[in-house]
Write the structure tokens for this entry.
Amino acid sequence: MGYLDHTASFPHLTSANSAKKSDETKSYNCIAWAAGDTANWWWPIVGRYWPPGVPREVTLDAFIQAFATVGYSPCADGAFIDGTEKIAIYADLGEPTHAARQREYEKWTSKIGKLEDIDHDTLQDVGGPLYGEAVVFMERPRADS
Amino acid sequence: MSKESGETPPQSGSLVDLPRDLPFHERVRQMREQSGSMDAMSIEAFVTLLRDFYGEGSVIRVRHASPESTCEKFSRLAKQWQEQSAPMSSSTAMVLIPAYQHIIGMGWDAVPLMLRELRDDPDPDHWFSALEAITEADPVPEEQWGNIKAMAAAWVEWGEREGCI
């Protein structure tokens, strides 16, 4: 099953507002992908990768600290700014669930769990019962700018 | 069963409304005809029949035989878990899926099956928490935490060393 088969989890995601960009792999997740790491599965539990020194807690604060280790700092929203790379952290009932990285104007990239990387037009496209909604935004200078 | 037929006095509250002087097996046959199948309610009635026959104070235990082999059960649960966990990034949420918990509940029977999955799948799945829970082993060094393929290799090596696969 590909990401488009999980309609109950992603009611807003369609072939019109998204595109597959990689094969499926269980080697890295959305948090790792947003941080630019395709070698590890990031999650704050014993047995998974978590940046050294960051509390192993499934809290927004811990996730903010984790992304700070790769140069991100909190910002107001996901509005595109030329020369700036942004991420959005999703939460459901206050607990982090997902992260998406801004690729370009009106284009975000997400690793869908153990499935594919995809591009999607808006943050709401991957929102829903599984990921909740984007609640925290962070930014860093874009490397290729 | 050794109770003689026709000797049990009628008792109130019985779910089985059949003549009590019938032999035990004839009562069972007629009860099954009445219920149509041995469903849960029929099993309850059957237990009551046994209790009527052997008298108050008798202890009746019902064990439901599994129609599945260990491999079949693991395959079924693994498929369910993999489908449900596929879009998840949260390792915490993955482990809480009931199918994964049932695999942990299979105990050591599931260990070689998970180890073979880790050995044979070029994109190994996250069986690690289940293996740790069952075996209490911890063969993955901290520097490999999150490197899924390295973690899989560490567990396979452990399994071969322990004679599990």
Notes: Chain A is about 10% helix and 30% strand. Chain A has a mean pLDDT of 96. Residues 60-68 of chain A form the longest helix (9 residues). The beta strands of chain A are 18-20, 73-75, 84-92, 95-104, 107-111, 117-120, 133-141.
